Amino acid sequence: MKRKWLLPLIVLVSLLIATPVLAIGMSGNFYRQDLVIKQGETIELDRVNLVVFNHDDEPMEYEMTTVTPEGISIQLDKWSGTIPPVSPTNPISCINVWVESISATKKAPVGEWFISISANAASDGNIGSAVEMTNTIVVEKKGKWHKGWYKRWLKRLVRRWRHIR
């Protein structure tokens, strides 16, 4: 009776030992940004970065991916590469990925949306883990102001004012 837990424990330990785990981590300030964009515009982001860490003693290949609603795109300065291994002379092994800009097409859906940036790890053909950082973005409709509405309204007002005098 007391040995019923022994077999599942052995199976679990063997799976943990046999499965290669890639030690990837991510930090940065992307999640703290207040992101508001109008349809058809691009916002340039200054000093917004992600730091991707390799906590393993072997080099790690990484690939960056983004998840956004249709019509929204995130531009990064690096999309893939290799992070060097941790060593006694290099105890913190990481790379900086800068978020350059976010663009919205003229047909981007209006509203508040979740967006995310992920770092996916792979080493020696093994698919590793992924880490993700999320944020929200508010997409606003491009108003009449941008279509010359204000100028037409101002001209009408001046004409009426002249007509009254």
Topology:
Blueprint: H1 6-18, E1 24-28, E2 35-38, E3 42-44, E4 49-54, E5 60-67, E6 72-76, E7 80-83, E8 93-104, E9 111-123, E10 126-140, H2 149-164
Parallel strand pairs: 2-10
Antiparallel strand pairs: 1-4, 3-8, 4-8, 5-7, 5-9, 6-8, 9-10
Overview of the molecule:
This protein has 165 residues and is of the alpha+beta class. The protein has a single domain (22-160), classed as Immunoglobulin-like (Sandwich). It is 18% helix and 45% strand. The chain has 2 helices and 10 strands. It has helices spanning 6-18, 149-164, and strands spanning 24-28, 35-38, 42-44, 49-54, 60-67, 72-76, 80-83, 93-104, 111-123, 126-140. Strands 1, 3, 4, 6 and 8 form a 5-stranded antiparallel sheet that branches. Strands 2-10-9-5-7 form a 5-stranded mixed sheet, with no helix packed on it. The longest helix has 16 residues, at 149-164. The mean pLDDT is 82.
Any key phrases for this structure?
Immunoglobulin-like, five-stranded mixed β-sheet, five-stranded antiparallel β-sheet, alpha+beta, 2 helices, 165 residues
Assigned CATH architecture: Sandwich
Shape estimate: elongated
Q: Going by CATH, what is the homologous superfamily?
A: Immunoglobulins
| Number of self-contained structural domains | 1
Q: In brief, what are we looking at here?
A:
The chain is α+β, with helices and mostly antiparallel strands. The chain contains 2 helices and 10 strands, in the order αββββββββββα. The strands form 2 sheets. Strands 1, 3, 4, 6 and 8 form a 5-stranded antiparallel beta sheet that branches. A 5-stranded mixed beta sheet has the order 2-10-9-5-7, with no helix packed on it.
